[in-house]
C-alpha cells in the first residue's frame, strides 16, 4: 500500500514537473494547434444558429469545401477537425458538451486514431486555453510525459531556426491557413507534394475496442452520422480489416453510416502529403458526395 502511494505521488509529481517544462518552452506563434481554440469558440458560440459540425482529425480539416456545403444545404458549417494525434476519445469528449440543440455532427475519424493520442496532445496542452484538461485520463498523462523529450527536441529546433532566421516548417501546418469555416485549403494551389503511397508505419493492428466503445458511448444522444474518412486507394486493402471492424461497431451502437467506406476511397494522386489529406479536387469531390448523401437521406436542408 505504501509503495502504491509513493508511486502514485511520484507519477503526479512528474506530471506537474512535465507540465512546468512544457509550458515554459518557446512557443511558435503560428503553431497549427492554436487553431483548436478557434474551432472550439466557433462551436461554443452562444449566438450561432444550429450547424453542421464536421468532426475528425486532420483528414477532416483537409477534406472539405465547407463554403460549398453550406451554400448547398442552407445551414452553417463548422469544420472542427484538426489532428488525429489528439486521439478520438479526447476529441469527442471535449467537443460534445459544446454542441447546440439542433447541431448535426458528421463524424469521420481516421481509422487508426483511437486511443489516448500521441505528441499532438503535448502541443494541445501547450497552445490551447479551451481544452478541458479534466477530460485527460491517466493514459493521456503517461503519453504526455513519454513524449516530453520529443517535445523538447522539437522546440529546440524551432528556437534555433528562429535565431538563424531559416525556419523551414511547412506553411501548410500553420494556424494562419485555415479559412473562416475551419478548412485547410492553401495547398489547393500548390504542387510541391504528391502522396506516392509510400507512407511508412501504416498501423494494421486491430482497433482499440475500449477506445472505440468510449467514443460511441460519448456520442449517444447526439444527432451524429458516420461518414467514412477519405482514404488513398493504395491503403484501402491494408486497412480493410480495421475499416470493417470499426464500421460494424458503429452500426451495432446505432450510429448510422451514410455511405460505405469503399465510396470514400480515392486515387493516390488525389492526396497531398498523407493517405488522408485530400488535394483540392478530392475535397470538392468529397464535399459534393456529402451534399448528395445528406439530401438523398433528408438529413438536412435549408429548412432544418
Describe the structure.
The chain is about 45% helix and about 5% strand. The chain has 10 helices and 6 strands; from the N terminus they run ααβααβαβαααββαβα. The strands form 2 sheets. The protein has a 4-stranded parallel sheet with strand order 2-1-3-4, with helices on both faces. Strands 5-6 form a two-stranded parallel ribbon. The longest helix is centred in the middle third of the chain and has 27 residues, at about 140-165. It is globular, with a radius of gyration of 20 Å.
The stretches of 5 or more residues where confidence is low (pLDDT under 50) are none
Q: Characterize the biggest β-sheet.
A: 4 strands, parallel
Query: What is Rg?
Result: 20 Å
Please give the oligomerization state of what you see.
Answer: single chain
SS-based class = alpha/beta
- State the end-to-end distance: 57 Å
**Shape field:** globular
Amino acid at each position: 500500500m505504501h509503495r502504491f502511494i509513493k508511486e502514485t505521488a511520484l507519477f503526479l509529481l512528474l506530471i506537474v514537473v512535465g507540465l512546468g517544462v512544457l509550458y515554459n518552452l518557446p512557443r511558435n506563434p503560428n503553431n497549427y494547434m492554436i487553431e483548436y481554440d478557434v474551432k472550439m469558440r466557433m462551436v461554443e458560440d452562444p449566438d450561432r444558429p444550429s450547424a453542421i459540425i464536421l468532426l475528425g482529425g486532420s483528414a477532416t480539416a483537409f477534406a472539405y469545401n465547407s463554403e460549398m456545403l453550406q451554400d448547398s444545404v442552407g445551414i452553417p458549417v463548422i469544420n472542427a477537425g484538426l489532428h488525429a494525434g489528439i486521439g478520438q476519445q479526447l476529441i469527442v469528449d471535449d467537443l460534445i458538451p459544446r454542441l447546440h440543440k439542433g447541431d448535426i455532427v458528421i463524424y469521420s475519424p481516421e481509422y487508426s486514431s483511437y486511443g489516448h493520442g500521441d505528441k499532438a496532445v503535448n502541443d494541445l496542452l501547450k497552445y490551447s486555453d479551451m481544452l478541458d484538461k479534466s477530460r485527460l485520463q491517466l493514459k493521456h498523462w503517461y503519453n504526455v510525459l513519454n513524449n516530453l523529450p520529443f517535445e523538447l527536441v522539437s522546440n529546440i529546433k524551432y528556437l534555433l531556426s528562429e535565431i538563424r532566421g531559416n525556419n523551414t516548417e511547412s506553411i501548410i501546418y500553420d494556424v494562419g491557413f485555415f479559412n473562416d469555416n475551419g478548412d485547410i485549403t492553401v495547398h489547393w494551389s500548390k504542387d510541391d507534394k504528391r502522396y506516392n503511397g509510400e507512407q511508412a508505419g501504416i498501423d494494421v493492428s486491430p482497433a482499440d475496442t475500449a477506445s472505440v466503445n468510449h467514443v460511441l458511448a460519448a456520442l449517444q444522444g447526439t444527432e451524429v452520422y458516420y461518414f467514412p474518412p477519405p482514404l488513398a486507394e493504395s491503403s484501402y486493402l491494408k486497412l480493410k480489416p480495421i475499416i470493417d471492424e470499426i464500421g460494424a461497431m458503429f452500426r451495432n451502437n446505432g450510429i448510422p453510416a451514410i455511405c460505405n467506406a469503399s465510396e470514400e476511397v480515392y486515387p493516390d494522386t488525389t492526396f497531398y502529403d498523407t493517405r488522408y489529406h485530400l488535394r483540392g479536387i478530392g475535397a470538392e469531390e468529397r464535399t459534393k458526395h456529402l451534399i448528395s448523401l445528406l439530401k438523398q437521406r433528408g438529413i438536412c436542408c435549408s429548412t432544418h
